[in-house]
Model the fold of this input.
Amino acid sequence: MDQAVKGAAALESKNFSVAVTHYTEALAINSQAVDYYIKRSTAYTRISPPDYDAALSDAEMALTLASKRGKRELIIQAQLRRAIALFSLERYGDAKACFDWVKEMNKEEKSLQIWGMKVDNKLKALPEDDVKARTWVQRYPDVKVPEQKEETKASKLPSSEPGQSTPNGTTQPPKATGVQTPANKIRHEWYQTDDTVVVSLFVKGVPKDKTTIDIQDTSLTVSFPLLTGSDYDFSLDPFCAKVDAAASTAKILSTKIEFVLKKASAGEKWPSLESDAPATAEDIDKNGVLADRVTVTGPSYPTSSKTGPKNWDKVANDLTKKPKKENKDGEEGGDDGLEEEFEGADPVNGFFKQLYSRADPDTRRAMMKSYQESNGTTLSTNWSEVGKGKVETHAPDGMEEKPW
Done:
């Protein structure tokens, strides 16, 4: 269908307002097309401003239609979009239930690990009796399916051009004007003192009156409109350690946004800006030693380095160098020292470290090259495949790849 093809092209080019328009027109002709609802739900979550209620409505309609037809793949996609919409609406208990149902049907879904971590972190931060943590949803929603050719959600049809009126009489907000750093050029850096962590997001032309900044004890989020009409979202969640949100500040300057985060524990060393979970002081000391050993390898982007391609053999060798341990008889120890090094560490990290340390040189090169070039989204042990070229970044579903 022509409108659906246009909608797919608009979604691919991140023109989400136009994508919603085309998919709405396509659904006016075929109101039972499951894929159209899934794609429009995706566009609703990314449009500026997002319409999460509409995204949830489309996802539940898609799930109902897919379940009636027994389309397993479409059921999984619709349930995933439903979970993401619920998470965005801060219905974390409901979102977790939907993510669990997706996992039951497809344990290999790539985005589940990240979304599962995000929803678990949200639930851990809530009181047990918080309404956001409750589960109200059923596996398959009770939604009335429209008859063929029934136009649905026409009232939510947005104008494809700013300033034009939509069918319900509302007007699309005009795009921001002026000089602004392109989204793919925005980057951030950080450093720390004994008392603070300073994060700089380098971007020009940020509209102060349209920027939303939220600093919490364990996270930071900022969102502002781009000249393209979409929003740029930046988040750090969770921090490596807690901060004092009340004593932390943010300033929007002409060339950057600067965040000065007050450490909750003065003098505490942060080995990194973010972590899988807030770390204790003891954990941070341990990780700090490990981080120093890992990060001395230099830039993570060998093909774009001004000094030329990265020597992956040297990186692999450097990472596995460590002092040899002597036993009581004065002889050098073997794997016992390795086991002691990983004892008490995170089980997952320990597994990969052991896998790496005991692998052959080609496997080590493959693991390092794939992980660094893909920005942590791919880990391969096949050097014959990885060595052919750059390993691309594959952002999980519901998230966007953004260069820093």
